[in-house]
Amino acid sequence: MLISLRNLAKSKANTNCSLCCSSAAILDANFLLTTTAAAAATRTSSSFSFSPNASPPPAPFSTSARLTPARDVVLSFKEWFNTRNDALFDRIFLILKSSTDDDVLALSHLSLRLSESFVLEVLRYGSNDHDVLSCLKFFDWAGRQPGFHHTRATFNAIFKILSKAKLMSLMLDVLSTYSKQRYAHTVRFHDTLVMGYAVAGKPDIALQLFGKMRFQGLDLDSFAYHVLLNALVEESCLDAVQVIAKQISLRGFENEITHSIMLKWLCKQKLLDQAEAYLRQLVSDGKPVTGHAVSVLVDALCKHKKFQQAGELVEEFRDLGVALMESAYGVWIRDLVQAGRLDGALEFFQNKKSLEGYVPDAFRYNTLICRLLKEDRLEEVCDLLMEMKEDKISPDKVTMNAALCFFCKAGMVDVALELYNSRSEFQLTPNSMVYNYLINVFCGEGSIDDAYRVMKHSVEQGYFTGRKTFSILADSLCREGKLEKMKELVTFALERNFMPSNSTYDKFITTLCRTKRVEDAYLIHGELNRINKVSTKSRYISLINGFNGLSKGDIAARLLIEMQEKGHLPTRKLFKDVICCLCDMENPDEQFFNLLEMQLSCREPSCDVYNFFIYGAGYAKRPDLARQVYEMMQRSGIQPNVRSDVIMLQSYLKGERISDALNFFNDLHERRKVLGRRLYSTLIVGLCKAQKAEIAVNFLMEMKEKGVVPSDDCYEFLIQLLCWNKEFDMAVNLINDLEKVGRHITSFTGNILLLHSLKTAELYKSWVQLREEQNEMSGCSMLGLLIGAFSGRIQVSQDIGNLEEVIEKCFPLDVFTHNLLIRRLSQSNMEHACALFDKMCQKGYEPNRWTYDAIVQGFLKHGRTSEAKRWVEVMYRKGFYPTRRTNLLL
């Protein structure tokens, strides 16, 4: 009877085999290796046969008998291992690790054909191995090769590697050096700096550089914008996220990457329902959505234990035809495995593979295999390894290490050791690979107790974990809240003169803070200060945020001052959070001014220091405190700058103290000879948000009388508010005023006018009345024609090309504009509406749900039901659904 590898795995799983090879395991292995050619021909996908020339089974306890069949197993797996496709990368990193900086020229002998994609692959490979130094050496070497210049993508890749390794000081040195050199190649200098500081966790510096760029008339491109936006989300700079997202949208850079980042932003705020609604709206609107965006939400739902909802979401968006769902499948499988729902992960994995032809990559296989190994489900491990081999999926280092662990757990330690001894043939890590790998696997899969036990066993065998593995284990212990074990691990390392890195201490303290053991973290922080261990900025931020969370703003305030004494500059947000916490405590006024007093003794009084407190008090909705700080600044002889005035004004507006805001603004008139656009814009926009349209209009008029040109925001917020209030006469006057001040109609304003024109003819009446009263509308006559046409008061006789040109002369078109235009044209001529749809697609605009819905409604209103139904079918294929109103007409 044939004993296959699968059967051996099954027998070992049933007997809960150990890592050591027992006599029973040797006996089973000998039977296993007695395969024949006939047996091989009848092998199923769940079994595995070896060389048909294998010797007959000898006596089970003979050493020579075990070596021959074990060699057959080794040769079979070596053949598979040799199919791996990253051997060139191993050679590159072998040279980098074994060479000095001067000897890296040995890379030239490999005759590498450098390109952006190749360099990115090499850096990604090195990043997976956490080999930061070698990545840096390769990056420097590549940049010096003739004919190759680093791109923004390669710069961003090395920035991410340094950031992930927490080598912030090194990264800042790189950025500082780069800022002093202007390379002759095509990489955009300012873009690279902004990306670098953003990825380095310095969003404040990145935003400052971005502001300087804009002041100089420069701008980021789409790639840099998205790097900055993602960094702001990662650093939880929630206020700045919306600002940058709006800039991306205004510049037409919005794409699926934008949507994925904004989904991450919502998820980081735990707004999962809003994130789901946002994702559905993207699909409904026809925005570009792929499986990557779905995976962001799926991952967040799983982290919040909402597995059923996450699973339903995967299937729903697969049914909607969302592209590249493999990404979502992979994340869903990974999260199920990490949560211990292994059976569900395997069932999903096999269903997708058999029904949809889903071919996972080696990483997804490894995820399942490693978890199965941890649970000793060796039969299923064997099945997956055989699937990989038969499907010709090239194994990677993780796969090979998993195979080694499988052979150990299956009792075939001799095979595992033979493969381990041959590691140089496959360029595996030349150190305690099995121990380190097991620690990494157990940590990655959440079995921290097992990982800790393996680490102690490895020490008993004369090995001590490397810095990389130590860091992984420490991170995992912190993540799982096993803080007592973490203390033991740190003590264990110090006994061996192994000093944990700052990042390890930071994670330890961060975990203590996250688990509400902030006082313990504070004690450790004090002990580190005692031994002169430099405290990092992130450590202070964790402690400050921890005490803020416990409503102990007084301790957070002391740490804020200490942080500055240690040379770390707190962000404006950190100041704001501490001040808001103080304002929620007992005796908030006393606490607030105690912090101000400590701050003024810590740093030289300046406008910026006072501005921090005004800004924080405004966010705490304590404009009275903000005003006291403002007056204190004046008494100290420091003249408030424009920013001081702006945030003081915003404090009143945020606190809904409209009358105080107006009085303060009047005081500024007396103190300042000229009030700039920024102050006027702040007041007008704030009044609009408070629904004070009439007052806002008055200040707009005053602004113009003072010779200050209103910003686009002023006009946009005012016109929108007036239209919603049906105060069309005033809105038309503002449009007329736009021409006089030399400003163009923005897409936002133009769309608001067309939208309300479709709803009512009152806007056009107001337009005509103003034209009759004053003959000053010549420059806006085309806009008037559009408003009349959309109101139904003017017959549209132009062809669609001319009509589009008319709109383009008034304001830039976008998808919303095309939807309005299609809806208007469909009222009279469906051929024109369909022609515009085609032209819209040719120009690169992506039709959304409302585009299709307008077409369908148009056909239905003209009684062309069959054509409407054909368009509905197209809608369904695109993943859109008709609106309720359209369904009623159908």
From TrEMBL:
Sorted UniProt keywords: Repeat
Source species of the chain: Malus domestica (Apple)
Superkingdom to which the source organism belongs: Eukaryota
PPR repeat start-end pairs: 186-220, 255-289, 361-395, 396-430, 431-465, 466-500, 606-640, 676-710, 848-882
Protein name, UniProt field: Pentacotripeptide-repeat region of PRORP domain-containing protein
Bilayer-crossing regions: none
Pfam families reported in the protein's UniProt record: PPR, PPR_1, PPR_2
GO cellular component terms, semicolon-separated: mitochondrion
InterPro entries per record: Mito_RNA_Proc_CCM1 (IPR051114), PPR_rpt (IPR002885), TPR-like_helical_dom_sf (IPR011990)
Annotated family: Belongs to the PPR family. P subfamily.
GO biological process terms, semicolon-separated: mitochondrion organization; RNA processing
Any one GO molecular function term: mRNA binding
